[in-house]
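Q: Give me the 3D complex with phosphoenolpyruvate.
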Amino acid sequence: MTDRQTASDSSPNGPSRRPLIAGNWKMHKLPSEAQSWTREFLAALETLSGAGGDSGDNRDSGNRGLACDVALAVPFTHLLGMARLTFGSALALGSQDVSAHEQGAYTGEVAAAMVKDCGATYAVVGHSERRAYHAEDDALINQKLVRSFEAGLVPILCVGETREQRDAGDAEEVVIGQLHEALAGVSSQAAADLVVAYEPVWAIGTGLTATAADAQDMCAAVRRQLASQLPEHADAIRIVYGGSMKPSNAVELLAQPDIDGGLIGGASLARDDLLEIVRAATR
Ligand code: PEP
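A: Here is the predicted complex, encoded as structure tokens.
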């Protein structure tokens, strides 16, 4: 955990983890469009300040008054321009990927340190679209995770099963296997800042959503696995759900004890929808 933020506070009732609502814009919006979107979103976010109260600190120091962390993972080309607008605000930025390499002759790649230098706090790693369309395997994702930690980014590690794997009864084995491989060799110290996103592949961009009970069951299984790999941090690490989260289902999903927020694709493109999900997380 960084010295700037405490995502989890212990209480007599167990740890209370600060929710994280992270949008993933994928390859949408021009940088110029993102500027006006961000200005208007920040103004709207201001109106939520104080919602749910907040006695905690925030990694970006601008979130006082909001009872959750809010982030947007945007295309690399948007980071610098958006960072100028969001600096010191309640909205943190993230990249949607980072290179597995630190630096060097890797044409077209973007290093974690570059992303960090452009103002990002988070990096999405291992998104199912990267796994499916760019043949990213667990070993590569492990390298990307390590590079993110080294650069001081907070990785949002995505894991999730396909429809076929769920139908075959293999969902948990697949997800836990992905987690196990991605975390191989990651030091306990580095991993304190990790965020895990459980994203069933069949729910991403399809309008289908895991039931709250199924999502909770998997997130609880993820936490058990974290307890065996990173025992000191398992209670504090945030596990978020992704897969067609929207205003109409956010409240129920976010009410689950092991779901500490959301990774939101489609609904994060619409200011009001994202705001509504942030509101749900601050209840
Ligand atoms: C995602 O891209 O991580 C995602 C969850 O997308 P959507 O919300 O559109 O399903």
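A quick observation: The pocket of phosphoenolpyruvate is lined by residues 24, 199, 204-205, 242-245, 263-267 (CB under 6 Å).
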